[in-house]
Amino acid sequence: MATTVEASLGGRDFNLVFEAGIGANGGLRNGGVSDRLRDRLVREEHAKLHRQGWSRVTIVNLQPFAVTVNLGELGVVALPPASENEPLQKLVIKDYRFSMRDLGDGNFTPVSILPSEIAKEVVREYGETGGVFWYEGDGDPKAADVAAARERQMEWYRKLYQQGVDSWSRYHQHKMLTDRQRDAARALVRSGDVAELPEWVTMTRAQSDRRPCPMCGEDIKIVAKVCRFCRSTVEPFEAAA
Ligand SMILES: [Zn+2]
Asked: 214 C-alpha vs ligand 1 centroid, how far in Å?
């Protein structure tokens, strides 16, 4: 169930980024003093972190969609979607990473990025969905934290569902709806908050783009201005009364 960071955080580490020979690309000066300076800075930064220590973190995804955050040179953090069989996806980040800071004179200095900073970045992007959170350590999440996240997630679903309902009654068009809104409707049906799936989830796109002609009752496109069966001019579709 738990995916480890080695599997999905595929970034290069500082030493690879600063490998001799890619200086021109990376903007790092090669040779002489810079090489020695670079090696010293890397050693110092490693030593500092090992003195201070750092915490492993776990990121949790309760959402039915994948969580993916591209951290550029640090790699991609990816958690698979939660499902009925695996309602809780975990990603443990064990190690810090190195990034580089441009010193502005063609030199770079190593900067450590702690696991907690990576986790915060993921939650910055997905936190509003309620179902993504992190904690220190690599143990199991506290039941209370999972319950709180599920409650925030349900609030988010209710908000999305209401947006879907409003959009559908106003426009009656699938293209105005998002997969997130459909996911929200399914989740609310599963939880019993909503009695049944709305037609904007169950209807196919082709079905929803049609309506009966108000004059002859034949099936016509929702955007049609003239019925192709009886040639009546029909009013543009209005929100359901
Ligand atoms: Zn007609």
From this structure: 7
Give the Å distance between the CA of 201 and the centre of ligand 1.
27
126 shares a domain with 26: yes
Domain annotation covers residue 160: yes
Residue pLDDT, tens place only, 112-152: 888 899 899 999 999 899 999 999 999 999 999 999 999 99
The residue whose two tokens read 């000066």 is 29
Check if the beta carbon of residue 218 is closer than 8 Å to that of residue 212.
yes
User: What protein residues have CB closer than 5 angstroms to ion ligand 1?
Assistant: 213, 215-216, 227, 229-230, 232
Range of the domain at 186: 145-203
Residue 62 CB coordination number (10 Å): 22
pLDDT, one tens digit per residue, over 14-53 is 333 333 333 333 444 444 446 667 677 778 888 888 898 8
> Does the global pTM surpass 0.70?
no
Total number of domains in the chain = 2
